[in-house]
From TrEMBL, chain A:
Transketolase N-terminal domain span: 39-224
Pfam families, per the entry: Transketolase_N
SUPFAM superfamilies: Thiamin diphosphate-binding fold (THDP-binding) (SSF52518)
Species annotation: Verrucosispora sioxanthis
Top-rank taxon: Bacteria
Any one GO molecular function term: magnesium ion binding
Protein name, per record: Transketolase
InterPro entries in UniProt: THDP-binding, Transketolase_N
Length: 241, 297
């Protein structure tokens, strides 16, 4: 667990001095000459819209019970995530230089107990949505109606049956404080005939399917929930992108 | 199922604490229906979805609640093992898992409903408390202790029962002292009556525990001479590593008795299975006398 004292210290160390968007150079720093796969590139725009315009969370509020929750379920998509956490001041940029090293807090999959602002440890696919459903239920049971739970998944990750347990249940009970975001780069081996969104809408979710590279389209989709049913945003990106 | 009624009644009382939340996957949902009516946001039944049941528990715990997660033993522990490992332990949060259907409680249901491996699986994880009550009257006290705690716990309820309760038997509690030099038999949960019967006229000290994790290794060292007999109502040998580690500096012998691994493909009753696994009084006596007379074997 991170203490709030640690959190504040880390936030100060990483805060952008002049307020510029440091994302691009920070991403290069994570990349360190490696080639990024489709799983990284496909999530960059969604992550930036979320952290720039949607999520109500700052380095100062990572332990606030009324913060929004962002759960990265596709835990392999860490490069953009770590760069954003550094750009937004959650972690010091220095941490980006040694990802996966013996003293690093940043693995190839994130660990919530090591990184301020990270809500779940993930890596094995199909765990984030169940944790997100539980978080949404927990907030509701405590009368915390302001925060919203966002879970980012991939289209191939939806192959895991555990997601479909969560989709069916969240729809059945009208879990209105939950948003799933599925980045669809058409990487699921057997595809999703009829479109991914139908798996959700058939279970009572509201859905928006948008161009996952179009930030002006992503923003209304990511905020397009009406509060009585769970909401899914399917972010389409190029084949294998 | 009397022990389950005790669990439901006790847990319903815990729901008066706004931090408590019960997570179900249809099993026992009817018994919790009155509690669900009173606390609709804190009695969560996800349907027949055990992966989600444990994932939801992890999410609830992340928001500061204390989940009590309940189902049939093989579905709770075996089917959802990765969720237990990742959605609870890896997230750094705790929950109390409570199972029914221990080992061969529902023998006639066949292999799908037999769950002898549950404690061994939980034992692959770090720092869990495991309770195996031998009588329904032991349940409220031990359940209160783990629900009021912070860490994770597994409570294994069984329809098998000793004739009387031995509360406060987390640490080893001596029920029969055979004096210096006697072998030490440690019986876990509902096995102790058969163990007492089996050894009535043997030089064996019988100690009882309903809390195999953390195992009372200090008590073991204080009581043991050189021969130890473990009698566990789940997979044979589950606690053998702890006994060996606790006695690493002493010459000792160990007989680890419990449910065997082979699939019997037989139905019948729990008593039949106890007999087939050598865990009834006669079977235990055979194993124990063999163990105590190695020269004659």
């Amino acid at each position: 667990m991170t203490t709030s004292a640690t959190t504040v210290r880390v936030a100060e160390a990483a805060a952008p001095i002049d307020g510029r968007d440091q994302f691009a150079p920070l991403l290069e720093r994570v990349r360190a000459g490696r080639k990024f796969g489709a799983n990284v590139l496909s999530t960059l725009d969604v992550l930036q819209v979320l952290y720039d315009r949607v999520l109500r969370i700052t380095p100062a509020t990572v332990d606030d019970p009324d913060r929004d929750r962002f759960l990265l379920s596709k835990g392999h998509a860490v490069a953009g995530y770590y760069a954003l956490l550094a750009a937004k001041g959650f972690i010091p940029p220095d941490w980006l230089d040694d990802q996966g090293g013996p003293s690093s807090r940043l693995g190839d999959h994130p660990d919530r107990t090591l990184i301020p602002g990270v809500e779940i440890g993930s890596g094995s696919l199909g765990h984030g949505l169940g944790l997100g459903v539980g978080s949404a239920l927990g907030l509701r049971a405590q009368g915390r109606l302001a925060p919203r739970v966002y879970v980012l998944l991939g289209d191939a990750e939806l192959d895991e049956g555990s997601n479909h347990e969560a989709i069916a249940y969240a729809g059945a009970v009208g879990l209105g404080n939950l948003t799933a975001i599925v980045v669809d780069n058409f990487s699921a081996t057997h595809g999703w005939p009829g479109g991914l969104a139908t798996r959700f809408t058939a279970n009572g979710w509201t859905a928006a399917t948008v161009d996952g590279r179009d930030r002006d389209a992503l923003h209304p989709a990511l905020t397009g929930h009406h509060g009585h049913r769970p909401h899914v945003v399917v972010a389409l990106v190029g084949d294998g992108e | 199922m009397i022990v389950r009624d005790t669990f439901v009644a006790t847990t319903t009382e815990f729901l008066d604490d706004p931090r408590t939340v019960v997570v179900l996957a249809d099993i026992s949902a009817e018994a919790f229906a009155p509690a669900a009516t009173r606390h609709p946001d804190r009695v969560v039944n996800v349907g027949i979805r055990e992966q989600l049941m444990v994932g939801v528990a992890g999410g609830l715990a992340l928001t500061g609640l204390r989940p009590i997660v309940h189902s049939y033993a093989p579905f709770l522990v075996e089917r959802a093992y990765e969720q237990i490992k990742l959605d609870l332990d890896h997230q750094g949060v705790g929950a109390v898992l409570v199972s029914v259907g221990a080992s061969y409680d529902r023998a006639a249901a066949g292999r799908t409903h037999l769950g002898p491996a549950d404690v061994a699986l939980i034992d692959t994880l770090h720092d869990w408390t495991v309770h195996v009550p031998g009588h329904r009257d032991e349940v409220p006290g031990l359940l209160r202790a783990v629900v009021c705690g912070q860490g994770s716990a597994y409570v294994r309820l069984s329809t098998q029962s000793n004739a009387r309760a031995y509360p406060e038997a987390g640490d080893l509690r001596v029920l029969r002292d055979a004096g210096p030099g006697a072998a030490l038999l440690v019986a876990v949960g509902p096995t102790v009556d058969a163990a007492l019967d089996a050894t009535a006229d043997l030089p064996v000290t019988v100690a009882y525990t309903h809390r195999p994790r953390p195992f009372d290794t200090a008590g073991l060292r204080a009581l043991v001479d050189s021969a130890v007999i473990l009698v566990e109502p789940y997979l044979a040998g589950t606690s053998a590593r702890l006994v060996s580690a606790a006695l690493a500096d002493r010459p000792h012998r160990l007989a680890a008795l419990g449910v065997r691994r082979e699939e019997l493909r037989r139905y019948g009753s729990a008593a039949d299975h106890a007999r087939w696994h050598g865990l009834d009084a006669a079977g235990l006596r055979r194993s124990i006398t063999d163990f105590l007379s190695p020269a004659l074997v």
